[in-house]
Amino acid sequence: MDASNFAVEAHDLVKHFGDTRAVNGVSLSVPAATIYGVLGPNGAGKTTLLRILLGIIDPSSGTRRLLGYDRPIEAAHEVGYLPEERGLYPAMSCVDAIAFMGALRGLPLREGRRRGAELLAEHGLGDWIRKPIRTLSKGMAQTVQLLGTLVHKPRLIVLDEPFAGLDAINQEKLEALIRRQATDGVSILFSTHVIAHAERLCERIAIIAAGKVAFEGAVDEARGRLRPIVHLRTRSADGPWREAIPNEARLVAGEWRFQLPPGGPEPLLKALIDGGAGIETLSIERPGLHDAFVAIAGEAAAKAMGDGLGQAA
Question: What does the alpha-carbon distance between residue 293 and residue 74 come to, in Å, rounded to a whole number?
Answer without folding.
Answer: 35
